[in-house]
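Hi everyone,

Forwarding the result from last night's run.
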Amino acid sequence: MQPPSPWPADCWYAVGLSSQVGTQPLAHRFQGREVVMMRDGGGRVLAFDGRCAHRGCSLAAGWAKGDRLVCPYHGWQYDAQGSCVHIPALRAEEAIPRQARLRTYPTRERHGFVWLWLAGRQASPDGDVLDIPELDGLTLRAGGDMAYTYATHFTRTIENGIDPTHAAFVHGRSIGRVDPATDFSLEHYPVQVEPGSLYGRMPIKVKKLNGLTRLLLKGDSANAYKEYRFLYPNVVVSIIHFGAVTLAALQAHVPDNDAETTVRVTNGRNVLAATPLLNRLFDRITLDTGLQISKEDAAVISEQEPKRVTFRGSHEVLIDSDLILVEYRRMMRERARV
């Protein structure tokens, strides 16, 4: 069994979808722990460790009382800073113990995600969530949000998310059939390496053939291409262009633990903004297609060995078409020191 990975804490992790976080507690698994998120009266996202300081009860089944998080077991109440401020069973002459508190995390909302600074409030966040210039001109669609859990490590799901050559072999049912005469060779593409970010652009070999998507994705094949951007440590942005039509999938690869990863996806596009009925229909198509793609990917990557990408001394053989994966592994070696 592989040992747990020493993932760095001094960075922003995308953990949840903004569209799902409301005024009542919402729990997500994250690196073997439980994190509970909720909005305060001003709409700001609060994030707490998900176990009560009293007896370790899960706070996921708790509720909000104003801006306080209430434990469902004995009613202990915690303020936005994680301090216990009310214990119903406490006698008048007793004080709340100083150690009765929860760890809390700084949060940001950007690109449709809630981001956590894993080091907690013991360390000031270093910088903010990075820009994604490819999203300029696109509208994020909460109606297309989805999540899928894979039985593998998040480094494997990330590499699948930026892999440029597997779609024609894995996604025949979801994305579309391929002309048998297709040349699958991939010409060299450059990868831009920036602080905390990678970007690559490459041609598309597969086109959708059926339904409403066919009507939308009817661009000239000479002007069909895809873009990938990786934001360290766990976000992948996949964008496809068919002529004037642009569709984007923003993926947060959330490490539930060392053996499972939940990929939370929010979608964007530059079409149908003025047609609500078609918008809703395309949201449905996006969700159905995304779920099918996830199932197809899971059937392959859940069987990869080792479960976690080996960044040093790997015996896997990469070639030039894997350049963006090579740069991803280099970034992880240098930034995460793994």
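DSSP finds five helices and 17 strands in the chain.

Cheers,
N.
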